[in-house]
Design a protein that fits this description.
By secondary structure, this protein is α/β, with parallel strands linked by helices. The chain has 2 domains: 2-217, Spore Coat Polysaccharide Biosynthesis Protein SpsA, Chain A; 220-291. The protein has helices spanning 15-23, 40-46, 60-73, 93-102, 122-135, 151-156, 166-177, 200-218, 220-249, 254-291, and strands at residues 2-8, 28-34, 50-54, 78-81, 107-111, 147-150, 181-185. Strands 3-2-1-4-6-5-7 form a 7-stranded mixed beta sheet, with helices on both faces. The chain is elongated and about 85 Å long.
């Protein structure tokens, strides 16, 4: 079974075209009405889509979480996600499906930056390049919401991010799990007026903070260990400078006091950072063992 899953928030102007277009290429369309205050859910339901409703707006991440759960419950073989604002062309769905099958991929990303790049505004190209640095330097479009997932990916991916950082989280999880990811060029429209409920700056910061948070949780020894060791090394340097200065002058000067305080501050902060990494690593290991 092929399922198209669409997160939507106040998209009554575009949702009908998106649902009807997707129905041509999949067996079922599922829309997550993420607390819309307009007729988004009602329109999608009238057109034959299965509608999942959130009582309040919980964010794109929570909408995708609900859609992944629905796809698993429907025992879907393929899940296609696309935005509900009309910027993705449902006619491109077969392109993703063909790549999923022909290349044996687990995830196919519809990239806005392969092929006709002039379709994408300059500020979006810049923002995506910046976010690629935090997620993956190999992929051209880590923030595209137009994707196809195999049965294997549907069952192994369970996003936890509630906000816009969910697209990065999914790719980070996929890379960690060893899933095969490929990209194909797609068309995209930005002549539909405002196509996002977030401004570009907020979106970018939301994703960056999400990636930092996820990295700190999943790789605590690296995230906290390297800065912690650097701080301890700086503290030891100031300890050395303090001892050398005191040995030369045999009195405690203001400079000696300054070096001593810096030695204490850097060493203490470094040890606290190291212990934080060790504690988080221990907790994450215990949690993973408990889930196995």
């Amino acid at each position: 079974m092929k399922v198209a899953c669409i997160p939507a928030y106040n998209e009554e102007r575009a949702i009908a075209a998106v649902v009807l277009g997707a129905m041509k290429y999949v067996d079922k369309v599922v829309v997550c009405d993420d607390g819309s205050t307009d007729m988004t859910g009602e329109i999608a339901e009238k057109l034959g889509a299965l509608v999942i409703r959130h009582e309040r707006n919980m964010g794109k991440g929570e909408a995708l979480r609900s859609l992944f759960r629905a796809a698993r419950e429907m025992d879907a073989d393929v899940m296609v996600t696309m935005d509900g604002d009309g910027q993705h062309n449902p006619a491109d769905i077969p392109i993703l499906l063909r790549a999923l099958e022909s290349q044996g991929a687990d995830i196919v990303i519809g990239s806005r930056f392969l092929g006709k790049r002039k379709q994408v505004p300059a500020h979006r190209r810049f923002g995506n390049k910046l976010l690629n640095l935090f997620t993956s330097r190999v992929l051209s479009d880590t923030q595209s919401g137009f994707r196809a997932y195999s049965r294997n990916a549907i069952r192994r991916i369970n996003p936890s991010e509630m906000g816009m950082g969910v697209d990065s989280e999914i790719l980070m999880d996929a890379l960690r799990l060893g899933l095969k990811i490929v990209e194909v060029p797609i068309s995209v429209r930005y002549d539909l007026g405002k196509t996002s409920t977030h401004n570009p700056i907020f979106h970018t910061l939301d994703v960056i903070f999400s990636v930092i948070k996820l990295t700190s949780i999943r790789h605590p020894l690296i995230f906290y260990g390297i800065p912690g060791l650097s701080l301890v090394a700086a503290g030891l340097y100031f300890v050395y400078r303090t001892l050398v200065l005191f040995g030369e002058q045999q009195i405690i000067t203001n400079l000696t006091m300054t070096y001593g305080l810096l030695a204490f501050a850097f060493t203490l902060l470094g040890l606290l950072t190291l212990f934080t990494g060790i504690i988080l690593f221990t907790l994450s290991t215990l949690i993973r063992k408990g889930l196995d």
